[in-house]
Predict the 3D structure of the following.
Amino acid sequence: MMAARENGEVRRNREHREKMRRVKAARDRLMATKTDERGLVIVTTGNGKGKTTAAMGMALRCVGHGFKVGIVQFIKGAIDSAERKALEAFPDLVTFRVMGEGFTWETQDRERDMAAARAAFEAELREIQSLGCELKDTGQGLIDFPGWVEGSIAYLCWQRGEGSVAFWHTLEGGFAARRPLRP
């Protein structure tokens, strides 16, 4: 009885090793195709909780890989945050700007809240433009980012509602000339 159980375990272990060998081979083939290096812009929006936690986790992951990260909080204001304290320990990699005056239910001043959000937006727009990015249309949320595509300088482009930056166009082209990025 004991020998049969051991034989079953030996067989399951062998099958598992073989399955994992196939998984690793498939993963290695996939990773061999990932040769393009690009920047990444992530915009986290929506109602409810979790956006800041998700953004901070992604920022920490980037810092762990040695990437520079810029974080802007448009609303929360000077609320003490353990995540912010942790990320501020990496001043060479993380730029953290708190632009708001606090949650709107705390301030209870719509005009002041709107003015603070507008000022924050304009300040960040200037910062984004200083990096060569262009906000093409605030209504549609069209943004162009300079980058390299197929060996030439081009614009990577994003529109509100798109899950990622997946299109590009030449410097002379515009939104209508967008083409998908190759995977």
Notes: Residues 133-183 form one domain. The first helix runs from residue 2 to 32. The mean pLDDT is 83.
